[in-house]
């Protein structure tokens, strides 16, 4: 049961959000005369404030403990709990609090609605919206923002048209929604319909212009704005920075009468994006006040430049670190391929999010990535595009089809079956595992195919020896209106090489100019491969002598290999001399040249090459292979005995050898 004072205080919490300021003050004065003023204004307020501080710091347990220990709670307390849970992505707990509340107001309903919208559960959000006993403009705006943030622009339009009253936030949210999805003309039309254009509405259109690359329109709008705030100036600083006009951005920054931390961060980010890290560092040192975002911008700038030591120095100086700070340093270790330090850093992180897991998984291009993927899923974190792209790629590299199929199913469950980066990775994975028909099924299931998807299928067919099919698919790609890129022609030239189509290969190689594409070293290497596979060794050598680009090592290996297959010792020696004069041989080339001599019976020459190889410290890495049996991956090293079932395997091999000898 409530005492009279508790009831009055509770009713105040229920109706306070709707009262004009004068009435609110009168009600507080009335309650204060009938109860302990310190309890109302100090005690409960202090408890509520501490609860929200705990939530802001991500300490949900501490917030719950405070809530349970409170001697008395008002409606604001319960609403704080709902909002706090929502901020920390704990929607189930937020709903549980909502269900146990003795009283609710429009703030309670709106807070929970916002939570469901933020986590993509639009049906539950709409159900709450429809069941609300009363709505205000904030409720409508929350539902509107939910539709927009989840890509339901059609539903957002329908809701916006049915709003009984709109404020500047409503108009700005809808304009921003159109611009987020590239619907610039719709945003312009809506902007022209706004009855009273506030600065926030101007800023919504201005920011959208910048994000969509409408830089001229952004400048015109900025110049005709009746009033500008700090956000307007900051947006234009970002605008000029993105098009490389950093001096113009700095000129705007210097003209600003009032600069907040966002403006400082924008100009610093501009210098970083334009490769002027020293200027960015100088401005960072001049900042009168730095928030976590400013620190993170500078740290990220150092990481992207490969200056990890500088990033670490700033990281250690930070008064308060966020998850972004930790993730940036983790990214730095991964970029340097220092996976030992990356792993130690990852293990010592106070908390991890999806980005942390995705970064560490991307660093391991091997079986470790799959193990980490399983750990991530076990911890209840949702994989994103980068996660799936990495683990699918690993499955293809290791040729473990059972894992690949399982991850493909997870891709579908998480709604990424239409993501072109992931689907192209799936095509490549099935191809590398030898399941070209499955690769075709994935390709055929894609409704909107971009160049990346077409490339993946063309390359898959090329490497499976289906050159004619790959060339036919290239024609379909052109007819569909997708322009080829350099990767497309790598696939086409590979297809020609596998089929020995020399004339067609020449035709496609020369046609790159028609698409304003400049052949890269990899394309020249494909042409060498085409000539070599077709037995045209002299043509391959002459082709190399005519070009003026540095060929990748494997192109020379291809030509040397072709010399070995064709038994052309003379050209093989000539090629090796060219390589010796221009670059150091790797172990593969030493072995190829040695084998050419050995197959010709020139044992002294072969031994001489091996001696040179040893003198230069080049050594052949031990061979490694793996096989997947019943979903389990087994690794084997040349001459290795570390496999747990090595004795059983050797016994089976000896048995097979006896049977083979008996059969003859």
Structural class of the helices, strands and pairings? mainly alpha
- Please give the number of β-strands: 2
Tally of separate helices: 39
Q: Which residues form runs of ≥5 with pLDDT under 50?
A: 1-28, 30-41
| Strand order within the widest beta sheet | 1-2
Beta-strand content bin: under 5%
Rg, nearest Å: 33 Å
> What CATH first level of the domain at 422-622 would be assigned?
Mainly Alpha
Which geometry do the CA atoms define? globular
CATH architectural name of the domain at 422-622: Alpha Horseshoe
CATH topology of the domain at 422-622: Serine Threonine Protein Phosphatase 5, Tetratricopeptide repeat
Which percent bin holds the helix content? Answer: over 70%
| Separation, N- and C-terminal Cα atoms | 96 Å
Main sheet properties: 2 strands, antiparallel
Mean pLDDT: 83
Pfam families: E_motif, PPR, PPR_2
Protein name: Pentatricopeptide repeat-containing protein At4g02750-like
PPR repeats: 74-104, 105-139, 198-228, 229-263, 291-325, 450-484, 485-519
GO biological process, one term: RNA modification
From the structure above, extract its key features.
664 residues, mainly alpha, Serine Threonine Protein Phosphatase 5, Tetratricopeptide repeat, two-stranded antiparallel sheet, globular
């Amino acid at each position: 049961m409530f005492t009279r004072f508790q009831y009055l205080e509770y009713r105040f919490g229920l109706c306070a959000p709707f009262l004009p300021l004068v009435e609110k003050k009168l009600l507080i004065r009335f309650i204060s005369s009938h109860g302990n003023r310190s309890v109302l204004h100090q005690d409960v307020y202090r408890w509520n404030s501490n609860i929200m501080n705990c939530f802001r710091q991500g300490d949900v347990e501490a917030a719950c403990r405070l809530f349970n220990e409170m001697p008395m709670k008002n409606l604001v307390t319960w609403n704080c709990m709902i909002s706090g849970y929502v901020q920390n992505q704990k929607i189930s707990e937020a709903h549980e609090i909502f269900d146990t509340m003795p009283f609710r107001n429009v703030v309670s309903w709106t807070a929970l609605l916002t939570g469901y919208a933020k986590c993509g559960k639009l049906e539950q959000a709409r159900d709450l919206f429809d069941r609300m006993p009363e709505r205000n403009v904030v409720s409508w705006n929350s539902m509107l923002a939910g539709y927009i943030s989840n890509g339901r622009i059609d539903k957002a339009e329908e809701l916006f048209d049915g709003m009984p009253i709109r404020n500047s936030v409503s108009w700005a949210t809808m304009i921003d929604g159109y611009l987020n999805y590239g619907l610039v003309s719709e945003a312009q039309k809506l902007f022209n319909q706004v009855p009273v254009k506030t600065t926030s509405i101007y800023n919504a259109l201005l920011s959208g212009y910048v994000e969509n690359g409408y830089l001229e329109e952004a400048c015109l709008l900025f110049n005709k704005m009746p009033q500008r705030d700090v956000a307007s100036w900051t947006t234009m600083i970002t605008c000029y920075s993105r098009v490389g006009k950093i001096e113009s951005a700095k000129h705007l920054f210097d003209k600003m009468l009032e600069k907040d931390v966002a403006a400082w961060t924008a100009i610093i980010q501009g210098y970083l994006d334009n490769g002027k890290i020293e200027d960015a560092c100088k401005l960072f040192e001049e900042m009168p006040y730095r928030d976590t975002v400013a620190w993170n911008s500078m740290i990220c700038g150092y990481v992207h430049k490969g200056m990890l030591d500088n990033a670490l120095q700033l990281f250690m100086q930070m008064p308060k670190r966020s998850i972004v700070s930790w993730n940036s340093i983790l990214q730095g270790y991964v970029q340097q391929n220092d996976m030992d330090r990356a792993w130690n850093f990852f293990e010592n992180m106070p908390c991890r999010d999806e980005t942390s897991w995705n970064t560490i998984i991307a660093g391991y291009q091997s079986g470790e990535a799959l193990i980490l993927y399983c750990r991530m899923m076990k911890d209840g974190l949702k994989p994103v595009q980068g996660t799936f792209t990495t683990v699918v790629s690993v499955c293809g590299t290791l040729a473990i089809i059972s894992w690949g199929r399982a991850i493909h199913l997870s891709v579908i469950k998480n709604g990424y079956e239409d993501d072109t980066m992931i689907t192209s990775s799936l095509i490549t994975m099935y191809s590398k595992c030898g399941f070209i028909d499955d690769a075709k099924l994935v390709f055929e299931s894609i409704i909107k195919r971009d160049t990346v998807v077409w490339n993946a299928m063309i390359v898959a067919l090329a490497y499976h020896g289906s050159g004619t099919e790959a060339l036919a698919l290239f024609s379909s790609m052109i007819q569909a209106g997708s322009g080829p890129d350099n990767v497309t022609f790598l696939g086409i030239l590979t297809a020609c090489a596998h089929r020995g189509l020399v004339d067609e290969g020449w035709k496609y190689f020369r046609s790159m100019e028609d698409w304003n594409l400049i052949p890269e070293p990899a394309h020249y290497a494909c042409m060498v491969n085409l000539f070599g596979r077709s037995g045209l060794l002299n043509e391959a050598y002459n082709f190399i002598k005519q070009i003026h680009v540095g060929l990748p090592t494997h192109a020379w290996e291809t030509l040397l290999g072709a010399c070995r297959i064709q038994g052309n010792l003379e050209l093989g020696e000539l090629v090796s001399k060219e390589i010796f004069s221009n670059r150091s041989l790797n172990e593969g080339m030493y072995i190829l040249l040695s084998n050419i001599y050995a197959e010709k019976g020139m044992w002294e020459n072969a031994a001489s090459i091996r001696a040179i190889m040893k003198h230069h410290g080049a050594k052949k890495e031990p061979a490694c292979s793996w096989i997947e049996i019943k979903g389990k991956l087994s690794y084997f090293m040349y001459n290795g005995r570390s496999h747990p079932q090595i004795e059983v395997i050797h016994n089976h091999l000896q048995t097979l050898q006896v049977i083979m000898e008996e059969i003859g």
